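Tip: read the tokens left to right.
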């Protein structure tokens, strides 16, 4: 008996990478913003660096001028270059530079902040790098710091010589006083004192004969011809690269935080229901609500394809009663419901379009209702209060404004559907207000055979879809599938919602007022 088969999902990684790239490229404005910010940053840095110059002077530090009693210590270990770096940037050296440049001593700290002292590895060379706003001042500052450091170090060496010779001089003075007073009675003691005196005098001469020079300037600073840092082209290229990285990061964050539906894959992942249709953005600029049977275009063909898939999904008997609803956009649901009803009627069936919105809806004002003077034989089979829609289709399309579905049960919807032509394939398409803001939508979802959810591309959030699915499942309804509306927001019909001018008749003989483009007319049913 074999164990469970584990599918290798490594081949899904390219698809995930492409999907991630598509999500990032959706936010091209943020990428462009990052490029602009990077370019401006490069220009600003280039402008700042354009007025900044730097010059360097080098000093060789002598090791023979350190403390004078270093016996058995190599010359390389007699100088601590780390200590000399700290001394070179000290306040005393900065004050010497201020006096050399004839500046107030209060500016000594400012001069020290422009100085950078480095020591190449395994060398006794100090590099004085000075930065200023002009080439001449840069060279003057670097040379002044190098000379001030050497002067300060020479002064410290001379002070060390004085301290050493003063100490030895005191010892020589004590021995001379003892010899002058003839206090040494024994000859061997006197000889030892004279030998010690000779040694001390020789040590003093040895110390004074040493060179106390601090070092040599091996390279004097000269006025630079170019500002510090990379050139303009390099800074612009660097700014563009950094801006591109910034834009990609911003786009990735935006796509990660954006919960709106941006593709068919995201829609399937959010609801895990089939996508029955994708409505493209039609180039037709007319504001006709009814596309199928009245106008052409790719959007009308998409509605026909949606009706075909819906019929095949529910079997040969037709979809039955379908609720078309959107989470928060009533206009999109009304357009899909009207065109879906027309497309189903185009197959030769009997379709009833019911507006079950409890609020006053303008759907009746936007549909091409058929004017008539007297009832015909077909009109005798219409459900109570319904009228025909003037759509150039093979079947029959009727419309009724329910004014709310709270008083209508599932049996009433079935009864109204059965009033259509006997033996024909009948379908009832119900449209309500937004599902998440109208309580009537949930009541209708419990009474119909299935719910068709209209999702706006880039306008509907995934949280709203999950909430709709949870409410439909809790109410015992059935979610047939979704329709992805890819039209731009400007294509949406945003007409004012007005109350219908006719009164739905509760009996076929009741009078009815129907709205038309040039006014209203009355019909008396016999």
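Filled-in amino acids:
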């Amino acid at each position: 008996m074999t164990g469970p088969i584990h599918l290798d999902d490594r081949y899904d990684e390219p698809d995930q990478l492409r999907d991630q790239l598509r999500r990032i490229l959706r936010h091209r404005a943020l990428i462009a913003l990052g490029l602009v910010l990077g370019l401006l940053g490069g220009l600003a840095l280039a402008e700042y660096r354009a007025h900044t110059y730097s010059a360097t002077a080098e000093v060789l530090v002598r090791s023979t001028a350190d403390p004078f009693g270093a016996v058995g210590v190599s010359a390389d270990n007699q100088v601590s270059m780390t200590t000399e770096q700290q001394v070179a940037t000290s306040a005393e050296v900065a004050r010497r530079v201020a006096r050399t440049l004839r500046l107030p001593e209060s500016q000594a700290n400012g001069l020290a902040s422009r100085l950078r002292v480095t020591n190449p590895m395994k060398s006794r060379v100090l590099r004085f790098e000075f930065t200023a706003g002009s080439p001449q001042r840069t060279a003057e500052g670097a040379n002044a710091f190098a000379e001030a450091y050497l002067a300060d170090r020479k002064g410290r060496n001379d002070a060390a010589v004085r301290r050493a010779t003063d100490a030895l001089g005191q010892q020589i003075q004590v021995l001379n006083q003892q010899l002058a007073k003839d206090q040494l009675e024994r000859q061997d003691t006197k000889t030892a004192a004279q030998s010690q005196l000779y040694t001390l005098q020789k040590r003093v001469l040895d110390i004074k004969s040493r060179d106390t020079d601090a070092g040599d300037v091996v390279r004097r600073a000269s006025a630079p011809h170019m500002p510090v840092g990379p050139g303009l082209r390099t800074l612009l290229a660097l700014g563009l690269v950094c801006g591109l990285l910034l834009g990609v990061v911003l786009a990735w964050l935006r796509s990660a935080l954006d919960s709106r539906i941006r593709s068919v894959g995201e829609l399937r992942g959010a609801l895990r229901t089939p996508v029955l249709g994708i409505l493209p953005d039609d180039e037709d600029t007319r504001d006709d609500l009814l596309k199928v049977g009245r106008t052409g275009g790719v959007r009308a063909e998409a509605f026909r394809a949606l009706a075909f898939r819906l019929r095949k999904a529910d079997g040969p008997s037709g979809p039955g009663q379908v609720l078309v609803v959107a989470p928060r956009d009533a206009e999109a649901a009304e357009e899909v419901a009207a065109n879906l009803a027309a497309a189903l009627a185009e197959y030769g069936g009997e379709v009833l379009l019911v507006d079950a919105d409890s609020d006053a809806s303008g759907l009746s004002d936007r549909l091409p209702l058929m004017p008539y003077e007297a009832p015909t034989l077909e009109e005798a089979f219409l459900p109570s209060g319904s009228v025909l829609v003037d759509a150039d289709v093979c079947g029959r399309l009727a419309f009724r404004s329910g004014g709310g579905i709270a008083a209508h049960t599932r049996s009433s919807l079935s009864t109204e559907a059965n009033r259509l032509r006997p033996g024909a394939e009948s379908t009832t398409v119900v449209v309500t207000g937004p599902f998440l803001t109208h309580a009537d939508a949930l009541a209708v979802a419990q009474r119909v055979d299935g719910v068709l959810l209209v999702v706006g591309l880039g306008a509907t959030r995934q949280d709203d879809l999950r909430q709709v699915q949870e409410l439909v499942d809790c109410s015992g309804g059935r979610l047939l599938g979704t329709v992805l509306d890819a039209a731009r927001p400007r294509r949406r019909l945003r007409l004012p919602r007005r109350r219908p001018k006719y009164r739905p008749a509760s009996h076929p003989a009741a009078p009815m007022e129907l709205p038309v483009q040039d006014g209203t007319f009355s019909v008396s049913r016999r």
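The first strand starts at residue 53 and ends at 61. The two ends are 76 Å apart (CA to CA).
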